[in-house]
């Protein structure tokens, strides 16, 4: 019972339709005043035009039945006709012209907002499954063309306002005939609205599931096009596996969509039945009135048009309300992502240490878990890193080495405990100030489709110091490789935007990331598996270089190859969320504990690999 209540509470929209409509209109006025004007003029025309359509036939019939002269008939109907043509031309012009501006709103306003939010939000909101689903639902609101939530809301707002005003005008007219007709038409239309709402609510109830299918299908298709995965796919014959997995997911997706469409189809059948009953009774009553002489032929034509229009307007209002409710939920999903609160900045921020100084780092009784189900990754974790010290974090996979880096960078906050730099809790720094203190080479290789120089400076070419870029490349051991290219460090990278883009090997990519960290020259240097793609000899040389380059910095190294950690001042061996052993390499080897055991196991493979490399070189 509790679960059902929670589900209902979860389904309740966070933003009302009126709130979303006001939000959208505000954005339209801010981003495109031309679109705002077009919508307003179109709405006015859509109100005036129907009134002409119902009064023109009556006027024509009255003129003919009153035996008016031909000139009067032509002039009167001509004026009405010209006015109608002018209104319709204006309305069609606004309708056609606004199409471009509506698309511009999606691309220049909302997609840009989503991009900026994705680039600037807290890392936890980007990495977590919940955050990815929230972003996908926001994207779904704008990437469906004319069916996008923002586009539908724009159209339905015009439809509801104009239909509501026309509904009021037509109601006033029909009430002169018989107020009960209005009640009769309203009851039938509300019944039709109820059927439409049932279908819409069923659709909305399964919106999360539909977004999950979209995310999975996108993942499979993007992986199929991923160049880095292309070799494995071909060598291991994974084509049929990918296609089979996609087919299974798509089958479930298709079944869900079919079920939803069946609900809408049933709603459409109910609409036809209601339409037959409504119009049959109304038109029958009008025929009875004119047959008994209660109304004139001209009035018959007027009321006939009014009832037809009334039925259309009240139906349009019901349909528009249903559609705008659905679009509003989609718009709410977009706002939920765009307005999702990141962790707040400190109320009284502390200035960061001088970027040219060395700093100390402290973890005090830190507990952390990614979720309640995953359990604790860090459990009462303590670590002190002295100013300028070089510390290596080692241990088996999953003990929390990379998690420690994420916490130090402020990507996540500990569940309890404190992380400090120079004795100041990192929560007291502004996020941008904390990031300024850190240069990092992460496990995941991030190469962007900009020039080599921009990929190192992480700034525009105008802001990049090219001499400094070359210095960093030389220190990282990559300068000679890039001098071979005609445009050197001004060459574009990757083939995403330029088919002639530079594509580096795995080892070269790691060196480029190291050059990037050197260029930033922050007081804290983090190397998270920086040499995973290098052979043992190159790895050893790289660590020696970094040891020399980081002599005036506080460095945290993570490596699964223990031989490379010998250059560090201290090695921390992690187990069960804590430091199980710590000391220099020699001290830990003398203890003959778990670190020594792991080192001995790895050294066997290092010796074998070195011998094979020497034989290949000599041979």
Report on the architecture of this protein:
It is a single chain. This protein is of the alpha/beta class and 619 residues long. It has three domains: 14-338, ABC transporter type 1, transmembrane domain (ABC transporter transmembrane region fold, Up-down Bundle), CATH 1.20.1560.10; 361-447 and 519-618, P-loop containing nucleotide triphosphate hydrolases (Rossmann fold), CATH 3.40.50; 449-503, no CATH class. It has 21 helices and ten strands. The protein has helices at 2-11, 17-31, 33-65, 70-120, 123-127, 129-140, 149-175, 179-205, 207-224, 227-235, 239-291, 297-338, 401-408, 431-436, 452-457, 466-476, 479-483, 506-520, 536-549, 585-591, 594-618; strands at 361-368, 378-385, 390-394, 416-421, 424-425, 438-441, 524-528, 554-558, 570-575, 578-583. α19 links the parallel β7 and β8. It is elongated and about 115 Å long.
CATH secondary-structure class of the largest domain? Mainly Alpha
Note poorly predicted spans: 1-10
In which range does the helix fraction lie?
A: 55-70%
CATH architecture of the largest domain: Up-down Bundle
Task: Provide the residue-averaged pLDDT.
Answer: 83
- Overall strand count: 10
Structural class: alpha/beta
CATH superfamily of the largest domain: ABC transporter type 1, transmembrane domain
Question: β content, as a range?
Answer: 5-15%
According to CATH, the fold-level topology of the largest domain is: ABC transporter transmembrane region fold
Rg measurement, Å: 35 Å
Largest sheet: 6 strands, mixed
Number of helices: 21
Output the strand order for the largest sheet: 6-7-8-3-9-10
Distance between the termini: 75 Å
The total tally of domains equals 3
- Overall shape: it is elongated
């Amino acid at each position: 019972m509790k679960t059902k209540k929670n589900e209902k509470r979860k389904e309740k929209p966070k933003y009302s339709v009126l709130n979303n409509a006001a939000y959208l209109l505000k954005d339209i006025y801010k981003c495109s005043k031309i679109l705002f004007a077009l919508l307003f003029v179109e709405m006015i025309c859509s109100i005036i035009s129907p009134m002409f359509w119902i009064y023109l036939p009556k006027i024509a019939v009255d003129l003919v039945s009153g035996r008016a002269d031909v000139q009067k008939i032509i002039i009167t109907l001509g004026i009405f006709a010209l006015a109608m043509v002018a209104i319709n031309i204006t309305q069609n012009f606004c309708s056609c012209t606004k199409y471009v501006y509506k698309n511009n709103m999606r691309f220049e306003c909302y997609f840009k907002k989503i991009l900026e939010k994705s680039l600037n939000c807290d890392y936890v909101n980007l990495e977590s499954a919940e955050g990815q689903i929230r972003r996908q639902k926001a994207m779904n609101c704008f990437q469906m063309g004319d069916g996008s939530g923002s586009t539908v809301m724009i159209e339905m707002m015009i439809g509801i306002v104009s239909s509501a005003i026309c509904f009021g005008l037509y109601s006033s007219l029909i009430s002169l005939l018989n107020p009960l007709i209005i009640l009769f038409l309203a009851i039938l239309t509300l019944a039709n609205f109820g059927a439409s709402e049932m279908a819409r609510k069923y659709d909305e109830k399964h919106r999360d599931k539909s977004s999950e299918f979209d995310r999975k299908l996108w993942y499979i298709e993007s992986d199929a096009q991923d160049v880095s995965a292309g070799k494995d796919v071909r060598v291991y014959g994974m084509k049929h596996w990918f296609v089979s997995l996609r087919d299974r997911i798509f089958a479930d997706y298709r079944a869900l969509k079919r079920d939803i469409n069946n609900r809408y189809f049933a709603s459409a059948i109910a609409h036809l039945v209601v339409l037959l009953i409504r119009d049959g009774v109304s038109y029958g009553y009008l025929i009875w009135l004119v047959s008994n002489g209660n109304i004139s032929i001209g009035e018959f034509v007027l009321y006939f048009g009014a009832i037809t229009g009334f039925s259309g307007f009240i139906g349009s209002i019901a349909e528009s309300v249903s559609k705008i409710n659905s679009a509003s939920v989609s718009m709410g999903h977009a706002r939920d992502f765009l307005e999702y609160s990141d962790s707040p900045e400190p109320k009284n921020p502390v200035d960061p240490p001088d970027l040219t100084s060395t700093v100390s780092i402290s973890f005090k009784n830190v507990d952390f878990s990614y979720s309640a189900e995953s359990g604790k990754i860090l459990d009462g974790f303590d670590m002190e890193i002295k100013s300028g010290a070089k510390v290596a974090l080692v241990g088996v996979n999953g003990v929390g080495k990379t998690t420690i880096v994420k916490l130090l960078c402020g990507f996540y906050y500990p569940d309890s405990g404190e992380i400090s730099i120079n004795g100041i809790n990192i929560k007291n720094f502004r996020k941008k100030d904390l990031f300024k203190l850190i240069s990092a080479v992460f496990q995941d290789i991030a190469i962007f489709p900009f020039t080599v120089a921009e990929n190192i400076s992480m700034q525009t070419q105008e802001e990049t110091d090219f001499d400094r870029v070359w210095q960093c490349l030389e220190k990282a051991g990559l300068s000679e490789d890039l001098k071979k290219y005609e445009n050197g460090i001004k060459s574009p990278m990757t083939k995403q935007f330029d088919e002639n883009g530079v594509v580096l090997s795995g080892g070269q990519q790691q060196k480029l990331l190291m050059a990037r960290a050197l260029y930033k020259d922050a007081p804290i240097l983090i190397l998270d598996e920086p040499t995973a793609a290098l052979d043992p000899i190159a790895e050893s040389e790289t660590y020696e270089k970094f040891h020399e380059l980081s002599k005036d910095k506080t460095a945290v190294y993570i490596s699964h190859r223990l031989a490379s950690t010998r250059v560090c001042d201290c090695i921390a061996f992690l187990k069960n969320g804590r430091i199980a052993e710590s000391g220099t390499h020699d001290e830990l080897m003398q203890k003959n504990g778990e670190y020594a055991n792991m080192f001995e196991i790895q050294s066997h493979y290092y010796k074998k690999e070195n011998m094979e490399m020497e034989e290949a070189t000599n041979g």
